[in-house]
Amino acid sequence: MLHGEAVKLEKDEAASIKTKIGLILFGVYSLVYAGFVVINTLTPKTMGMQVFLGLNLAVVYGFGLIILAIVMGLVYNHYCTHLEDKLNKPPE
């Protein structure tokens, strides 16, 4: 029992803009993560400082990176969905 295509794929008119948004978000995240690596490499004792509710900088920065990734993913999804809806209208 074979089935056909689930959906017919067509040209994505928003692909180039989505790529640019993705690369920008990747660059921003890379810079923030590079800051984490630089602090750990150059002054590892700094990561032991308590900064928020008794938590040290390593924990706060680490959770911040995770939350930033989730937020950026949601932002990317929102803008890409909007662009796809706007630019990939069916021919009338």
Quick rundown:
This protein is mostly helical and 92 residues long.
What does this structure look like?
This protein is mostly helical and 92 residues long. It is 64% helix and 5% strand. The chain has helices at 15-42, 57-87, and strands spanning 50-52, 55-56. Strands 1-2 form a two-stranded antiparallel ribbon. It is elongated. It starts with 14 loop residues before the first helix and ends in a 5-residue tail after the last helix.
Class computed from helices, strands and strand pairing = mainly alpha
Q: What oligomeric arrangement do these chains adopt?
A: single chain
Gap between N and C termini? 35 Å
Number of strands: 2
Uncertain regions spanning at least 5 consecutive residues? none
Per DSSP, what share of the residues sits in E-state strands of 2 or more residues? 5-15%
Keyword list:
2 helices, 2 strands, mainly alpha, 5% strand, 92 residues, 64% helix
How is this fold's topology laid out?
Layout: H1 15-42, E1 50-52, E2 55-56, H2 57-87
Antiparallel strand pairs: 1-2
Helix pairs in contact: 1-2
